[in-house]
Design a protein that fits this description.
Helix content is 33%, strand content 36%. It is of the alpha+beta class and 387 residues long. A 6-stranded antiparallel beta barrel has the order 3-12-15-14-13-16. Strands 2, 17, 18, 19 and 22 form a 5-stranded antiparallel sheet that branches. A 4-stranded antiparallel sheet has the order 4-11-9-6, with no helix packed on it. Strand 18 and strand 19 form a beta hairpin. Helix 2 packs antiparallel against helix 3.
Length: 387
Amino acid sequence: MTSENASDVQTEQPAQRRRTYARLALAGAALAILAYLAWSYWGGTKNQSHGAPPQSVGVATIGKGDVRVFAIGLGTVTPLATVSVVTQISGQLTQVAFKEGQIVKKGDFLAQIDPRPYEIALAQYEGQLAHDQGLLEQARVNLGRYQTLLKQNSIARQTEEDQVFLVKQYEGSVKTDQALIDQQKLNLIYAHIVSHIDGRVGLRLVDPGNYVQTTTNSTLAVITQLQPITVIFPLPQDQVPDILPQLNAGSRLSVFAFDRANIHQLGVGELYAIDSQVDTTTGMVKFRASFENKENKLFPSQFVNARLLVRTLRDVVRIPNAAVQRGAPGAYAWVVDAQNKVSVRKLVLGPSEEDITAVTSGLSPGDRVVTEGTDRLREGMSVVAPQ
């Protein structure tokens, strides 16, 4: 070996030793980190479970009770009657007696059309009737005289027959006059406009002094019936088989109307009608319920949440909704045993009402379930529930 080769070998050996030491140092550091993590997970958790105080949770005791089953739909308040107050005769509107938004009763006076032209026409036709009645009486007297003379062969039969026709003519004139009188009396009734339903009057659409005509459909105002009132709401077609047989059997199904926020109850009514077909665009069927609306909380065209009571489940196991958890196993609850330790219990749930849900299986009356503090629970953990 030459001197140059010996020098190169001596230089490479310290470099290899330094790389080996570096690898050993990195491996040792990695092992130390893994050991710390393992201790933190197993040893630390174990120490925490033994040393940490039990977690405080909210607990509810399972019991039995009734759960009402509802079919819910967004509905619209729809009046049973909406009447447009229109003039049935032409004339000048001389008076408007209602206030906008006023509650009126059937027969209440609303407006007046100038009656004078119709009063004058009535007097004219009454005079014509008196004139024609006089002619008729005279013709009848003459007819009686002619019939006597005809029996005595004192006049020609043609004279008697002509008088018979004249009597019939005057009788027709009298009937025509009476019809014209009745028409003018009816016009005077139409000139005095009254409400035909109980309800609320809307905004005034024509002011006094305007000339209104029957040919222009002069609407003075609109009256909307408020009591009773209805709510029309759609439900999925799949719910019809649960409802229709009860309706056909005469069952009285209650409907509860809530505001759009689903907080305040506006009224309780009764289902009385169902549409005859399914809306093919939505798959929904329209239902109609009637409400007394004594407090006028339901307003025409208002949107409400309608809850139709389909049936009531009697004496079933119930759980607060706050205790129901959902995850990979489905619905479950944390159950607290006699030693105040928690465990997971799978549930089969039924219908819900407000803040409770029916439980088909998984719980029994007397079981205690956690309602608060479920996010930090683990299987077998000890808990403390406030008394």
